[in-house]
Amino acid sequence: MNRDQINELNMIEATDQVLTTYNGVWGGNLAVSNIISTLRTHLTALNTNDALQKTKSQGATQSKDEARAAMIGLALQAANAGKAYATDTDNMPLFEAMSHGRWEMTKVADTDADDICQNIHDDLAPYITNTAAYGADAALLSNLQNAIAAFSALIGKPREQITIVANATITIAQHFKAVSALLKNQLDPIMMQYQNGHEDFFNEYRSARVIVDIGHRHTVILKGFIYDDNNHALADVLVALSGKAKYKKFTNATGKYKFTRLHTGSYVLTVSKSGFVTQTKTIEAVTNGAIETDFVLIATDTDSVSSS
Fold first, then answer.
1. Gap between the Cα atoms of 156 and 72, Å rounded
2. CATH number listed for the domain at residues 220-297
3. Which residues 6+ apart lie within 8 Å of 274 measured at CB?
């Protein structure tokens, strides 16, 4: 990405962070939810293609791992939406077709992993017009197909990296154009309804929407994964950030959380989920960059001590 794109991506991620914090305000509004779902699909694709764009032939192995993780993340999002829709419509064949987990897709061979993801894509495609409210729309399927193609191209073929980088650059420009239109023409106008009655949300949203030229990707990033003691990813874990900044997020289907565009300083991460012991960790961010902190949550029916 060039400097302008990096600054724009920082703005998009900051906006998403505010939206996550105030999910309780807009979560019940289907129109807002659908727009934000589309925004997040583009954001996932931007980060995926950013990683591919930075790929070089000597880094093929690492890039392949990143591409596989991106593909699996999108496939899990599609599968979870498909299972939810199948449950509501009593569609057992679809439910079974969507019943693939992160553990399975992570442990199988490369060629099997892209087959599983392709099957999820193909099996969900006939129902995609009905699954937007469940978290999967046509844009998500398109991004999943692109991620499958990118990963498949990397399996044993590092010499094809140059083509992948060129394609990623084109795709990034297309996603930025789509996000810009979505924010200006849809999300910004619909946010006006929160100007009175939810002033904190509205003001933080407007502040996040300002593009700031910081010249590099982010300042401090706090991110990581949350698992149970069997090494299974835990989704929907509440991750509360306090200290120099205060935000809340829920982990996605892969157990991942991420706080971006933070400043150096002291932070406290508190993770909690029903049925598990709450854990707290203090993070000292003394320099700019990413700090990765994982958690292993212990079920409340076993003896455990929260870490600090």
1. 19
2. 2.60.40.10
3. none
Residue 281 and residue 295 in contact, taking contact as beta carbons nearer than 8 Å: yes
Terminal Cα distance for the chain, rounded: 37
* 39-74 per-residue burial string, b: 16 or more CB within 10 A, e: under 16: bbbbbbbbbbbbbbbebeeeebeebbebbbbbbbbb
Look at residue 72 and tell me whether its pLDDT is greater than 90.
Answer: yes
Q: Sign of the C-alpha dihedral, residues 154, 160, 165, 167? A: negative
Helices 3-21 and 161-182 cross at an angle (nearest 10°) of 50
CA–CA separation, 246 and 26 (whole Å) = 19
Angle, alpha carbons 240-78-56 (nearest 5°): 80
d(CA 172, CA 78): 21
Q: Which residues pair with 220 in a beta bridge?
A: 262, 289
Domain regions of the chain by residue span:
3-186, 220-297
Contact of 53 with 29, CB cutoff 8 Å:
no
Least confident of 63-77, 150-164, 194-208, 214-228: 150-164
Tokens representing residue 149 in the block: 């193609």
Cα separations in angstroms, 120 against 37, 72, 144, 224: 19, 11, 10, 26
C-alpha R_g of the chain: 19
Residues 283-299: pLDDT tens digits? 998 887 788 899 999 99
